[in-house]
Amino acid sequence: MALISIEGLRKRFGTNEVLKGVDLEIEAGEVIAIIGKSGSGKSTLLRCMNGLEAYQAGKITVENAPVTQDETDLRSLRLRVGMIFQQFNLFPHLSAGRNVMLAPMTVKGTKEADARAIAEKVLARVGLEQKFDAFPEQLSGGQQQRVAIARALAMEPRALLCDEITSALDPELVNEVLQVVKGLAQDGMTLAMVTHEMRFARDVCDRVVFMHLGQVHEIGPPGEVFANPRTPELQQFLGQVQ
Ligand SMILES: Nc1ncnc2c1ncn2[C@@H]1O[C@H](COP(=O)(O)OP(=O)(O)OP(=O)(O)O)[C@@H](O)[C@H]1O
Fold it and tell me: What ipTM was predicted for this assembly?
């Protein structure tokens, strides 16, 4: 049984159909890179998986529970699936530690002392155990994104969805964030990443999903997808990004 299962997913904004029947199964512990041209529907696919966007047709389940816009379903989904965005979205008036503590305290009702212990643990996991009391403006972009990853981890999710999480960073800060994600992958976290980092996709991911015009156009292990693209669309895309 796949951890995340997507069947015949269709999503439109007004008359613009952005996802045109997406099928995808993600197993527990799998690391998936979602690649494709701008506008091919990558972000929309992730946002549908996390209940941030409603969809018109098809079915998404996480651990067999349907992803819908129903409040109860959404609350249970938030406990199981975390999402990290291009923008870090930290509260500027709260320390790194407090940013991390907030999620379990507000969503799960975790007591303050327990939330603090969780925050210390997850900040250590992203290499920021020294930065509990630092405010976002005192941190680099890479460090802020690592706090955002820690905040997602504080919910003890079954899967993490990452939407271009290094795209807002200066090039020299990209690697420290990717290293953290690589560590999570090695620890068995289920990950779906929309990314432009082809080397990361090749080195770390189990499978690569190439989106084109709102559909999964090619899918397979990176060794196959990058070395032997079957369609001209993927050949052209790889020619542009590599
Ligand atoms: N909230 C929205 N309202 C209307 N149209 C939207 C909305 N979000 C996305 N779209 C449209 O959906 C299409 C797919 O967008 P999406 O962001 O999923 O693509 P993408 O592959 O992630 O692209 P990028 O790499 O540029 O982020 C685009 O045509 C976009 O304009």
Answer: 0.95
Q: What angle do CA 18, 22, 25 make, to 5 degrees?
A: 140
Q: What residue ranges do the domains of the chain occupy?
A: 4-89+159-241
pTM: 0.95
**Nearest atom of ligand 1 to the alpha carbon of 164:** 27
Angle between helices 141-153 and 96-103 (to 10 degrees): 30
Write down the H helix ranges in 187-231: 198-204, 222-227
**Structural tokens at position 46:** 């992730």
* Residue to probe by mutation, ligand 1, list 20, 40, 167, most atoms within 8 Å of CB: 40
For the domain made up of 4-89+159-241, the CATH class stated in words is: alpha beta
Give the pLDDT confidence score for residue 242 in this predicted structure. Answer: 65
Q: What angle do CA 140, 146, 151 make, to 5 degrees?
A: 125
